[in-house]
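Chain A, query sequence.
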Amino acid sequence: MIRLGDKRITVTGGAGFLGTHVVRVLQEQGCSKIFVPRRKDYDFTHENDVARLYRDATPDVVIHLAGVVGGIGANGENPGRFLYENLVMGAMLMEYGRRAGIEKFLAAGTICAYPKFVPVPIREADLWNGYPEETNAPYGLAKRMLLAQGQAYREQYGFNAVHIIPANLYGPGDNFNPASSHVIPATIRKCIEAVERDDAEIVCWGDGTPTREFLYVEDCARALVSAAESYDGRDPVNVGTGLEISIKELVELIAEVTGFGGRVVWDRSKPNGQPRRSVDTRRALEAFGFQAAMNFRDGLRRTVEWYKSHQGSLRD
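Chain A, predicted structure.
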């Protein structure tokens, strides 16, 4: 148990989608010594920048959220970059944290690290029972190695590294760039632009049969802060909602929320990704009392409203 209020906390990726929400939750809980490194100042693929971060910030706690991420298309186009940059960033940030003697290192993993074929709901114990889904395996394996590093450092050095695995995130502030966005922001944008142009149809990847679980970003931020304060275990912890929904049902729901009444065309030449994703959330409840609070339909409405209010500045 760590009282975060008087700790110096560095949040890598703290200016990003998830990070901005984590920083806000920390502030709401009375944390005032928060350092958010920016990419223009610190490139975590460069060892000198990682060393300088620890000299500049002198953190007690590091919450590592920085990463190179994207949807199926971005993963397919950048497998080498996604593996290398995520692997190197995590490895060096944890190593230099160990050398600096920090009290805790919390790493956000990814549901993409789980094997392609695994029983649902996915238990943390299943993480090593197979190879990840091919379209995002390099990214998933880089994050899986971050868990292995943390466990090895705990065993050899007594280093307090914890690993949290969120379900697929969505919410205000998400990435709506068609070249790199995930399914929810990509579909929201398609539907809203189709309504604006009075298009008769939208095109979605795959056949709509895969399932996913989605976690509202503010819920995830609360989970990470709770884990940073209250969880000190070696084992990874899933955070999610336990709600499994097919991509077809998801697209229909987004169409309803956005007011798109046209036809959905499924491009079966594009990959489906992992067949099923939904996580077992019991460990998070037992370990640090986390339960997701946001209703999925309400979360989608809030995400749509945010996109509409920022649409002009997000055009590309």
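Residues 119 and 231 are 26 Å apart (CA to CA). The chain has a mean pLDDT of 95.
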